[in-house]
Amino acid sequence: MNTARRQRRWEVDNAVAPSVYFGLDRKLCGIYTLEFAAGERYVGQTVDLASRLAAHRRRWDDIIAVSFIECAPEELNTLERTMITDAERSFVVRNRAFTNMPGGDAELDLVVDVQEQAEWLSGAQPAYPLDARTLAAERRQHTRPKFEQLAALDHYPEVLSDLATYIHAVIPWPSTTGGLYWGVSAMPGTARTKERRRLFTVNAHNVELLYMNHFSDDGATQSWLNVDKKKLSRADRRELYISETSYRSYPDAVSIYVPLGAMGELYEMPTVLAAARSMALGLMRRGPSNFAKFHSDDLLDDVLLQRSSSDAG
């Protein structure tokens, strides 16, 4: 006997990023149904629900809800045809059959909607709208000068090592979530003085998770790690230098002082690691970072490549 498939439904708002509704796992494979303000429906298949919804929004501004059934790739065509037929029984559907498409079913249809392909082929859609990849390229171009300034520092390898240790220990799925649910900025102007310069800041939602300062007067470089104080043990409070913070949106945060090069040793303390992870994931689950536009893709590239190099070694 076949088990009934679970269908999830979200009411959506054009002012809210699609990824907010679907959580950290943006690569959802299955059949989706769009609901429009006038009561119409549209049924399609995808391997990336958030990206597909974003594409449809650029085409239609009257989407009010989306439903989704997850399935295996080999089930997509059959399930899609069944759901289109079912939708046609009760609603007006916006799906149109195109007979002039070259070839038959194609994997490309999972990435670019077949309706959009047909419109492009007929010349009805002559230009490509700005998408996440293009916006990321623009951000990279904007943030690269500050990254190059950071990378030119003599002690950049040590700075990068501490940052990479933090990200790989604390941030969930950094290659997927970076630049969306959290960001790392290179050489930000925050709290800059004649003697002190911030080297990087890691943010999630509207709160700092980690930042590193360099002091020109004595050459010291140090970090402050923000964690959830409820997760710390009494031993942590005795052994670490901990300072109170004043984040209105995260009143349970405290800051831990971390000298350059000591980041790895800190995460050998299980309660500290749990406190850092709890704060990071809790903030990421609130939605995209308010500071994502300052995210340095180049700096994250270096972090990810350092992890790849260590794994290979």
Quick summary of this structure?
This protein is α+β, with helices and mostly antiparallel strands and 313 residues long. The chain has helices at residues 18-22, 49-59, 76-90, 108-111, 114-122, 132-151, 156-170, 174-177, 234-239, 263-266, 270-284, 297-312, and strands spanning 7-11, 30-36, 41-46, 63-70, 182-186, 196-204, 207-215, 221-228, 242-244, 253-259.
Gross morphology is elongated
Structural domains: how many: 2
Pairing-aware structural class of the strands and helices?
alpha+beta
Q: What is the gyration radius calculated from CA atoms?
A: 24 Å
Count of individual helical segments = 12
Strand order of the largest sheet: 5-6-7-8-10-9
Which band does the percent of strand residues land in?
15-25%
What average pLDDT do the residues reach?
87
Main sheet makeup: 6 strands, antiparallel
H/E element sequence = EHEEHEHHHHHHEEEEHEEHHH
Q: Give the beta-strand count.
A: 10
Distance between the termini: 50 Å
Unreliable residue stretches: none
Provide the helix percentage: 25-40%
Give a topology summary.
Layout: E1 7-11, H1 18-22, E2 30-36, E3 41-46, H2 49-59, E4 63-70, H3 76-90, H4 108-111, H5 114-122, H6 132-151, H7 156-170, H8 174-177, E5 182-186, E6 196-204, E7 207-215, E8 221-228, H9 234-239, E9 242-244, E10 253-259, H10 263-266, H11 270-284, H12 297-312
Antiparallel strand pairs: 1-4, 2-3, 2-4, 5-6, 6-7, 7-8, 8-10, 9-10
Helix pairs in contact: 7-12
Question: Can you describe this structure?
Answer:
With 313 residues, the protein is of the alpha+beta class. The chain folds into two domains: 7-122, no CATH class; 132-312, no CATH class. Helices cover 40% and strands 21% of the residues. It is built from twelve helices and ten strands. The protein has helices at residues 18-22, 49-59, 76-90, 108-111, 114-122, 132-151, 156-170, 174-177, 234-239, 263-266, 270-284, 297-312; strands at 7-11, 30-36, 41-46, 63-70, 182-186, 196-204, 207-215, 221-228, 242-244, 253-259. The protein has a six-stranded antiparallel beta sheet with strand order 5-6-7-8-10-9. Strands 1-4-2-3 form a four-stranded antiparallel beta sheet. A hairpin with a 2-residue loop joins β6 and β7 (207-215). α7 packs across α12. The model has no long low-confidence stretch (mean pLDDT 87).
